[in-house]
Fold this protein.
Amino acid sequence: MAVPVIAERTRRIRIGTAVTLLPLHHPLSLAEQAATADLLSGGRLEFGVGRGSIPTQFHGFGLPVKENRARFDEGLDIIRLAWTRDRFSYHGTFYQVEDLEVVPRPLQQPHPPIRVGVHTPESFAHIGDLGLPIYSGTTTTPLPQLRECLGIYREHLERRGPRVAAGPDGADVPGARGPERRAAARDAMRGGVLQYYKNVHAIFSALPESYGDHLPRLRGIEETIANLPYERFCRDQAVFGDVAEVVDRLEAAREELSLSQIICWFDQGAMLPRAEVERTMRRFAEEVMPRLR
C-alpha cells in the first residue's frame, strides 16, 4: 500500500484506496496491511474495495472471473471480523480461518470506513443489500446509467431498514479540470480520452483466445477507438470547461444524484505535462472547490 508514504507527507487529509480488489488478495493479509496503514496515518484510512471485472486481472492469478462476487463477499466478511473480534473463526467456500487473532487492530473504531466501487446494476443492487457506501466513475458508468443505478442502489438500501448506517455515496468525474475556456479545455483532453480507451483495449486484448465473455466489451472499445464519440463523452462522462461551467455541472450532479463526494481525475490517459496537471489542480482547489461547499 502507498498509504503510509502519503500519510508521512500529510497531516489532515483522509487517505483512500480505490480500489483494492478483494478477490485477488488474501483477506487476512489485507486486514493486517490496512490496519497498519490506519495506525500510521493516525486514523485517516478510507478502505476502498471492489470485486474486479477485468478478465486479465483474474487470468494472471489463475482465478475464474465468475467467482469474483463470492470471493469478494467472503473476503470482506473476514476483514471485518479481523478488525472487530479478538479471535474468530470463519468457514467459507474459499477461506477457512480457525480461532485466529489478527494484529494490529485499526485505530478507527469499529474499523476504517469501507466504500465499494461499483459500475454494474447488479453490483449497485448487491452492495445496497449489504448496506455499504459506494462510489462509481462516469468513465464506466455514464451519467444516464448512473442515474438508473443509483435508484437501484437506494431501493435495495432502503430494504435494509433504518438500522443500517450505509453512509453517503460518491462519484468520480474523469477529467474534471480546472477553470479554462470550454473549447480549450476540451481540445486539451481529447487526446487523453482517446489514449485512455487505447489503454483499456490493451488490457482487454491481452487474453488467451479461450476467454470469450470479454469479447463483446472488447469490440465496443474497438468501435469507440475507431470513432471516438467525444461530444457525447463530454456530455455524459466528463466535465471540461471554465470555472462557471465546471461549478454549474458539478453542482447539478451533486443535487440530482445526492452526492457527498466527487473524485476528480485531472489527466485521463496521462497525456498532459505534469506542470499543466499541477496548475489545473491548484486552480481547481482555489477557484472551484470554494464554490461547491
Remarks:
- The two ends are 31 Å apart (CA to CA).
- The chain has eleven helices and nine strands.
- The beta strands are 15-16, 20-21, 45-50, 88-91, 96-100, 114-117, 134-137, 170-174, 261-265.
- Confidence is low (pLDDT under 50) at residues 163-168.
